[in-house]
Amino acid sequence: MEAYDTIIGQNVKLQGNLTNQGAIQVNGTIEGQVESDSTIIIGPNALVKGPIRGKIVEISGEVQGTVVGDERVELNPKSKVYGDVSTKNFVIKLGGTFVGKSSTLQDKSDKQPLPEIK
Length: 118
Prior knowledge:
By secondary structure, the chain is mostly beta strands. The relative contact order is 0.15. It has one domain (6-104). It contains no helices and 15 strands. The protein has strands at residues 6-8, 13-15, 18-20, 24-26, 29-31, 34-36, 39-42, 47-49, 52-59, 62-64, 67-75, 80-82, 85-92, 97-99, 102-104. Helix content is 0%, strand content 53%. Strands 1, 3, 4, 6, 7, 9, 11, 13 and 15 form a nine-stranded parallel beta sheet that branches. A six-stranded parallel beta sheet has the order 2-5-8-10-12-14, with no helix packed on it. The model has no long low-confidence stretch (mean pLDDT 91).
């Protein structure tokens, strides 16, 4: 199990961008971009309104925005994603909701920029 450099608690509401090279676990609410060179976990009670980019992105809560997973994006049961997904491997487990378009990343040269937040 990976150790998390940054944990956003369940009662935390963050407005702004969160960038870290290490793993991030979000259990609260973020209005802004979340970006990591490692794993990003969106917990079952979490809400992210903005784009997400990570090496591996595992979602159990709700995301309203673009999701880019350089290696994998995984939607767990009861997860909700409203936005486009780009990744090499896309997994939607039974009960996960996905509303958007998906595209496959071929290699590191396909790394797409995240959209600007307005």
